[in-house]
Amino acid sequence: MTAIMKTKPAYGAELVEVDVPQPKEGEVLIKVLATSICGTDLHIYEWNEWAQSRIKPPQIMGHEVAGEVVEVGKGVDDIQVGDYISAETHIVCGKCYQCKTGNYHVCQNTKIFGVDTDGVFAEYAIVPAQNAWKNPKEIPPEYATLQEPLGNAVDTVLAGPISGKTVLITGAGPLGLLGITVAKASGASLVIVSEPSDFRRELAKKVGADVVINPMEEDVVKEVKDLTDGNGVDVFLEFSGAPKALEQGLRAVTPAGRVSLLGLFPREVTFDINNLVIFKALEVHGITGRHLWQTWYTVSNLLRSGKLNLDPIITHKYKGFDKFEEAFELMRAGKTGKVVFFPHK
Ligand code: NAD
Ligand code: ZN
């Protein structure tokens, strides 16, 4: 079978021919119907510092997936051949304090599928049965593969009340775009998006943002206040990982408002925490991964509701992996929303 493999500790990846893997005990083998690129895959491709410290080539890349089960390993009794599944990427231990108290998303012994194990940028892939999520047949593979990042967006947007609320989203990369559609589908009354890229501001509008702001040219805080009778937004959702966006959002959110932070910052961030968080009595959430499995039910229900506007977010679709380098380079240049591969041509 064909697979995109990180073959060497260096920039890039290679298309390789390898044997179809065999499922071991507790694993299933899937025929990959659709798989999408995540920012993490891009970091592995670019071989940044984090990737150098974590990834052990040779390894098949990728973790966002929708596929059909073609073989099940020993001891798997809840998944059958023919099931249509996606995969949670956090492989949790089930034994630590967090797991035992229902907080699997912060398991102390988390391994990441496709980061610490072979992944799904392949025609066939192994999924640990405990990480498989059964999809309803009516959800097309190109949407089903987006459920893992949609889970990040859902946990960010729905960490507090959203219906009827005014919202600022900073960053309209793939995750921010998913956040926009989740916020609109969940009844946000006004979604303002701050994003420096012209291409991504256009995408944000197509996905459903009510107002888009270019933070390089406009005063984000003033624009937000003007749009909210001088009060600031009820909810600030950070999807950029830009220190400047964090500060602008904290200034633009109304006192006693809610802040959910998903973006990861490249270094330590300094800001006036007394005036921007404590005296404003903000409710602040750090968001990581997805709740197992509550978030998956919410994502699946949102997909089935037909209320999510995903088509403008999927900017690139590829049959086969032949053009994977083009896909990664476009993503590096910020010229994409989500990129989806259909491995079987
Ligand atoms: P991305 O880099 O594609 O998107 C970030 C966007 O922010 C870009 O479009 C960029 O133009 C924009 N941006 C840059 N500076 C800005 C500013 N000053 N104001 C507003 N926008 C600005 O990343 P992504 O794949 O969409 O992921 C978003 C963030 O979420 C990243 O930081 C990523 O590392 C993080 N992330 C966190 C988790 C988690 O579990 N916490 C999971 C996945 C991703
Ligand atoms: Zn655990």
What labels describe this entry?
binds zinc ion; alpha/beta; seven-stranded mixed β-sheet; 26% strand; 345 residues; binds nicotinamide-adenine-dinucleotide; Quinone Oxidoreductase, Chain A, domain 1
Structure report:
The chain has 345 residues and is α/β, with parallel strands linked by helices. The protein folds into 2 domains: 2-146 and 313-342, Alpha-Beta Complex (Quinone Oxidoreductase, Chain A, domain 1), CATH 3.90.180; 158-286, Rossmann fold (3-Layer(aba) Sandwich). 29% of the residues lie in helices and 26% in strands. The protein has 12 helices and 18 strands. It has helices spanning 39-46, 49-54, 97-100, 141-144, 147-157, 174-185, 198-207, 220-227, 243-252, 273-278, 294-305, 324-332; strands at residues 2-6, 14-17, 27-36, 59-60, 64-72, 84-87, 90-91, 111-112, 124-128, 132-134, 166-170, 190-194, 211-213, 233-238, 253-261, 283-286, 314-319, 338-342. Strands 3, 5, 6, 9, 10, 17 and 18 form a 7-stranded mixed beta sheet that branches. Strands 13-12-11-14-15-16 form a 6-stranded parallel beta sheet, with helices on both faces. α5 (147-157) crosses α6, α5 (147-157) packs across α11 (294-305) and α8 (220-227) runs parallel beside α9 (243-252). The model has no long low-confidence stretch (mean pLDDT 98). The chain binds nicotinamide-adenine-dinucleotide and zinc ion (ZN). Nicotinamide-adenine-dinucleotide is lined by residues 39, 152, 170-176, 194-197, 200, 215, 239-242, 244-245, 262-264, 287-289, 334.
